[in-house]
């Protein structure tokens, strides 16, 4: 029986932090507390719904990744890669750099520990 590497636990923490960020963003938008958004209620509703949906999708992927699902590994990697690219292509400010860092660290850790995530289910601890 092998123990889970520390970097895998750190990666789980970063993924949960990302889920929390999307969840909080969705709630902030839903309660109209974000000052930089347009005053169109439908647009705010769509943005809040998308943020909460992304949080739910990430939570489901996290659960499957925790259970060593190979598809979840690749989908999580793709999510963070696309999210990082979109962050770079946006107007980059301090908050964008923080979010970019929170997206890049899981990519690096997913790639570093790919053997752990892609191992056969019979080797689970």
Tell me the overall shape. Answer: elongated
* β-sheet strand percentage: under 5%
- Number of H- or I-type helical stretches: 5
Domain module count: 1
**Major sheet:** none
Distance between the termini: 6 Å
Secondary structure: number of strands: 0
- Report the order of strands and helices: HHHHH
Give the overall average pLDDT.
Answer: 90
In the predicted model, the low-confidence regions spanning at least 5 consecutive residues are none
What is the structural class?
mainly alpha
| Helix percentage range | over 70%
Radius of gyration based on Cα positions: 16 Å
Structure explained in plain terms:
This protein has helices at residues 6-30, 41-66, 70-89, 94-112, 114-117. With 125 residues, the protein is mainly alpha-helical. The chain has one domain. Helix 1 runs antiparallel to helix 4 (94-112) and helix 2 packs antiparallel against helix 3. The model has no long low-confidence stretch (mean pLDDT 90).
Concise overview:
By secondary structure, this protein is mostly helical. 75% of the residues lie in helices and 0% in strands.
């Amino acid at each position: 029986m092998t123990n889970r590497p520390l970097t895998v636990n750190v990666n789980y923490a970063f993924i949960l932090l990302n889920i929390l960020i999307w969840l909080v963003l969705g709630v902030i938008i839903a309660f109209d507390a974000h000052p930089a958004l347009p005053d169109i209620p439908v647009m705010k509703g769509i943005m809040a719904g998308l943020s909460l949906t992304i949080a739910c999708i990430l939570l489901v992927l996290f659960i499957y990744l925790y259970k060593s699902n190979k598809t979840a590994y690749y989908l999580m990697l793709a999510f963070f890669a696309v999210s990082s690219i979109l962050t770079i292509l946006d107007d980059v400010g301090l908050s964008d750099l923080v979010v970019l860092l929170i997206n890049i660290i899981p990519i690096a850790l997913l790639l570093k520990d790919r053997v752990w995530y892609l191992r056969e289910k019979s080797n689970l601890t």
